[in-house]
Hints:
- This protein is 30% helix and 21% strand.
- By secondary structure, it is an alpha+beta fold.
- It has three domains: 3-39; 43-157, Sandwich (Immunoglobulin-like); 167-445, 3-Layer(aba) Sandwich (Aminopeptidase).
- Strand 10, helix 4 (224-237) and strand 11 form a beta-alpha-beta unit.
- Helix 1 runs antiparallel to helix 2 (23-37).
Amino acid sequence: MNKSIRNAGQRCQRLSQSFPKDNLVAGLLLLLFIFSCSPRSENSLKLLRSANAYSEKGKVVITAFKSMHYWGEEHRDLYREIRIYRLSCPDFVFGKDYEEYFSDLDFKDGECIFQGSLEPILGSKYRFVDDATETGAVYAYWIAASAGKPTGPLPVKIRDEQVWWPYHRVMERLEELQNQYPRLVKVEEIGKSVNRKPLLAVRIGHEKKAVALIGAIHAGESGPELIIPVVQKLLEQNSDLFRRISLVVIPSVNCDRRDKLAAGNPWYLRRNANNVDLNRNFPADWDHVDQTYGYMTSDPDAQTFRGPYAASEPETIAVMDYLRKNKPVAVFSFHCLASIAGETLGISKAGAESQEYVNRCSTFADLYWQGVASPFAEKQKIVPLCTSGSLPEWCYRELGIPAFDMEEPFDPKDLAQCAIDATDRELLAKYQDIHYRGFVELLTRAPDEVSNPQ
């Protein structure tokens, strides 16, 4: 018998003397000590680490590394077999469910979709591709080695890359526009994201007067999938407009976290890679603490955290520098949810206290709505909803120009669809056309630059 087990048994025996008439108690104590001192069995070992699951072109990729305790050649037999489990999660609700939804899931409720040998990359990394998935579905995965304890759950959602563009697609589309229209289109890098992705902007036209379109300040909302097709159609069908006015565009500001959603993160993401809400980070009444959605902007744990100081984020600085440089007459920032921004136009709450500013915002909003020609005309009212630290608040305070957060669709059916991340290609095409019509009218009749009302 192992010395530690023998010592444990002796301790049990001494303890059991206080129960001379109950040998059962002594026996149970002895068994418990022996079990706790025994070597762990294979099925209790955590043989894998750093497991991950992500979506790529409609498939799910599961990866994991060998545990550092067992990655040596002498432990090869522990990895003679790899198992992959998958559980469908049809009741997951985007916007309501977050990480907590997955915490209590059990691999035993799923199905084993693979059991066999996998050759590790460099003797350490396992990679498995599940191509039997459904677009729009949410899954939880587990990966296990031999009889070891499964690692997971690893949550992932299969999103349509035509609806949620990976950032490499954004960059490719901008390059295509520049190649197709070299005399009108100029793409430039205006900064880096937190994760060092190039923040790209594009200017269409050479006129000083310009309107700005800003996308994906909030990762889980909208931007490039609407803006770039609108720009493409304007160039194809209305290029004469750019003899009188220009567009300045940043299609995807929060590109780090938007890429995470495109790669399958199931729940809504808002903040950037530093966990800062970029639409609370601008230096405009930043010191004022706002309370929205049950959060305080001063709380680092909140989804609306404003950052450690004003303009602390590289994305915020890049947007400010680009707008200062180009001096647009109006700014439209795309929001709402799941690649859809609607016709609701929100302005700075502070700006709404100036009737002169409201009137100038109304001029641009009315032109946009006239182009849209919505059947929900009764909803065509600008809404003072943009808080301290937001882009519209900064545009009002520093630039003195009309600035809008584009929010909910007027059509309640469309809002209900995008609110649960059920946007499909048909809905996306509908809103590409809506915004195209709105911006054709606005660019055709946009007033000249106006002075700061303050």
